[in-house]
Specification:
This protein is α/β, with parallel strands linked by helices. 30% of the residues lie in helices and 15% in strands. The strands form three sheets. The protein has a ten-stranded mixed β-sheet with strand order 5-6-4-3-7-1-8-14-2-15, with helices on both faces. Strands 10-11-12 form a three-stranded mixed β-sheet. Strands 9-13 form a two-stranded antiparallel sheet. Helix 13 runs parallel beside helix 15. The longest helix is centred in the last third of the chain and has 20 residues.
């Protein structure tokens, strides 16, 4: 029988650890001279110098609709390759990816494993998870049933901020009445009730109001100071044709753009880039901008718009200029809404360009605010079934065909090449034989990536998304969190009330 002396074992282990530590103290120059080694060491050193401030005067929440982790990775490479002449790109960072604090966020709705934007933004705006399709009402409500929502309305961050005397703003490249922006200021059991003409008889009977109405018809002390996006048709009567020759959709005959300018002090309404650029932020306290009948253009197509549209960066910057006049502070929520739409269309190019523009807008916000008093958070509402695959060599065009290390074109088992980016489902699926992409320019903006399961519209995905934060209160963005925790991080940072800590 072998007898083990544990004291001897402990002594040997201790001696071994000391030897390893001594050896680790002297690293070879090939290791310490590496730029990878130096950069990562400096990053960790910098983190040890961080101090955590808890109170924020201002909060800016950016939401990249549909911006999952694979979208972030592909967009950072895409941006890097544009800067570096289509070589490298992997080492690039989007502006907010260098924020000091990060968390993973669970996105499910109370009734769906894979969520929709109404339920996810409701979680962020109210601190309460709810069903898919409902906006800022609890999941005790039935979707599209007005009566069931009565008494189940939830108070949003916008309401709390306004009650404290802060200024508030909502910006989106989608319709401003679309699910994500609407959840911040409207309470309704159906995200599709964007104009009064969308209301069913039951909703009218039980006095539910459409989303556009709820945006404009607020008391001045609870009104948005800034509302910029698309969706003009939901604010003007169906008897009116707008400046781009598109008809309105309101059946009540009310022009809400006119009501906006009449109801609020120092108010302005604009519908094109010329009008937007002409706004004097020093004399404008309430700005409504509706730059398209439906959604605004994708960033890749924005310059082709007939009337002209401001970029997400333009809208963010002007919003800050208006909101910053309030010495008590402000809350601004900015959505890059069309990342989601490009993914639904199976079109990675436009999704990545819109993601890069979101990064630009975040950088502009950081550059135009005081980091000691402004909490900036960047997140998504959900992800998409979008993936990066194959074994492309470093620097391979992210929108291109896969080339293996050494430059050889990668060939699938069907004898055809394939792209790095693809979708699990969506309109890019081919029934039968897969298209040969050898002679197709997969980098042009209209190319639709191939997918596995044929669907008319690619779907959301259910995995976690990220939260990136900097500024006072940002240290609370850590770990794996439920999506409704984002509300509480903002609520605590600005001491908005409604929660006991």
């Amino acid at each position: 029988m072998i007898v083990i002396n544990m004291k001897n074992v402990a002594a040997l282990v201790s001696c071994s650890l000391v030897t390893m530590a001594a050896n680790a103290a002297v690293l070879p120059a090939t290791q310490t001279d590496s730029q990878w080694f130096k950069d990562s060491a400096q990053l960790v050193s910098d983190k040890t110098q961080q101090t955590n401030k808890t109170q924020a005067k201002n909060v800016i929440l950016f939401v990249g609709d549909g911006m999952g982790v694979s979208t972030l990775t592909a967009a950072r490479i895409y941006q890097g390759q544009q800067i570096q002449g289509n070589k490298g790109g992997e080492e690039n960072f989007l502006s907010f990816e260098q924020f000091p604090n990060t968390a993973l966020v669970k996105t499910y709705n109370t009734n769906q494993q894979t969520p929709d934007s109404a339920g996810t933004m409701t979680a962020m705006a109210t601190g309460v998870k709810s069903k898919a399709g409902v906006l800022s009402v609890s999941d005790a409500s039935l979707r599209a049933n007005c009566l069931s929502s009565k008494g189940n309305e939830l108070i949003t961050l916008v309401d709390l901020a306004n009650a404290k005397g802060l200024s508030t703003g909502v910006v989106s490249t989608a319709r401003i009445t679309h699910a994500t922006p609407a959840a911040t200021y409207a309470a309704t059991p159906e995200r599709g009730w964007e104009a009064d003409s969308n209301l069913p008889t039951e909703a009218i009977t039980n006095e539910c109001k459409d989303i556009a109405y709820q945006l404009v018809m607020r008391d001045e002390d609870n009104a948005l100071s800034v509302a910029l996006g698309g969706g003009r048709r939901n604010f003007i009567p169906d008897t009116v044709t707008d400046g781009e020759n598109k008809s309105g959709r309101r059946s009540d005959g009310v022009d809400l753009t006119q009501v906006w300018t009449e109801n609020f002090s120092n108010a302005a309404y604009v519908w094109d880039k010329e009008g937007f650029d002409a706004i004097d932020t020093s004399t404008t306290d309430h700005l409504l901008g509706l730059f398209n009948s439906s959604h605004m253009e994708y960033e890749a197509d924005r310059l082709d718009d007939t009337a002209g549209e401001p970029s997400l960066t333009d809208m963010t910057t002007k919003s800050i200029e208006i909101l910053n006049k309030n010495e008590q502070g402000y809350l601004l929520i900015v959505e890059a809404g069309r990342i989601d739409h490009a993914h639904h269309a199976g079109n990675a190019h436009r999704a990545l360009v819109d993601t890069v523009e979101l990064s630009n807008a975040v950088k502009a916000a950081f550059d135009n605010t005081n980091p000691d008093e402004t909490l900036i958070m960047v997140t998504a509402d959900h992800s998409h079934v979008f993936t990066i695959a194959g074994y492309p060599e470093r620097g391979n065009p992210i929108l291109g065909l896969v080339h293996n290390v050494g430059g050889d074109l990668a060939i699938a088992d069907d004898g055809k090449p394939y792209t790095t980016l693809g979708y699990t489902n969506g309109p890019g699926a081919v029934i039968g034989q897969r298209d040969d992409l050898s002679s197709i320019d997969t980098e042009q903006k209209n190319f639709m990536q191939q997918s596995l399961v044929p669907l008319s519209s690619e779907t959301h995905a259910g995995e976690d998304i990220t939260l990136h934060a900097t500024g006072p209160g940002s240290h609370l963005a850590q770990g794996v969190i439920e999506q409704n925790v984002i509300f509480h991080i903002i609520n605590q940072a600005q001491s908005l009330g409604g929660t006991k800590y």
